[in-house]
Amino acid sequence: MTFPTSPTIPGEVTDIPDAPCVIATGPLTSGPLYERISELVKEPLHFYDAAAPIVTKDSLDFTKVFAASRYGRGEDYLNCPMTKDEYFAFYHALIEAETAELHSFETPRVFEGCMPVEVMAKRGEMTLAYGPLKPVGLEVDGKMPFAVVQLRQDDRDGRLYNIVGFQTNLKFPEQKRVFGLIPGLEHAEFVRYGVMHRNSFLPSPGHLNWDYSLKTNPLLCFAGQMTGVEGYVESASSGLLAALALHEKLMGRAPVDFTDQTAIGALGHYVSEYVGHDFQPMNVTFGIMAPAGQRFRGKMQKNLFLSERALHTVREKKALLSPAIE
Question: Does the reported pTM lie above 0.70?
């Protein structure tokens, strides 16, 4: 079956087209369309200037890390206690680390509301210890550590944790080196490094389905970084999944869920089902895919298993698509 092609019409899109439609607009969507999308979801689009790194739980050293909430109240965090020597070794490495170059529109003023941890550290050697690393209420065996780095659950299943208060503009290799000085994070696997830049994206959890369609209008879909996916491949992936699902609906069929056993499916489920307090854009990683359910000798073996399982699942799901898509 062949599909008719539509002409490309140059010009700025300032309103939301009638459904069925896939809206593939970027993180710097122009004013009029941005306002229409904000009105559609009945809340402003999320802007962020910084995002903290995210690590996998199974890569942490739990001989050093412990779970507890401050004063025993609220949700549990994972906590990395530091001695005085460990704190100052980390502090000096942090303030001396190499940062990424800012673009012209990314000024320190923009980031004042979510200050980079390295900028905060340079305000004084005890600033972090009295700020995001304060140990008060997190005693260990009745003794209060000199400082504590906290990690907060970042996904539904508790496999990913973000480093609280560690928005940063350090270069990626520097993040791995410096944050690896934190007790318990020596061998941490980073599924996302901290980033700082201007962006806008939908509050997708609660508004989008796993196929990037709007909950209030399943024939109106979004694609690209506007959905909360991060990166070119991820943006293309969201567009492919949205288009496949929309086609099935128009054919009177149920859309095919590729599930979180595949990269394309896991990304859609992550941005639509995130349950944390601070949804941020995400790259596709093995960390957001369904766990293997078994142990492996090394990360390479585990990732190979996940990859082969994903390919098998894709082949199974592809067979369920409408024949016309072939």
Answer: no
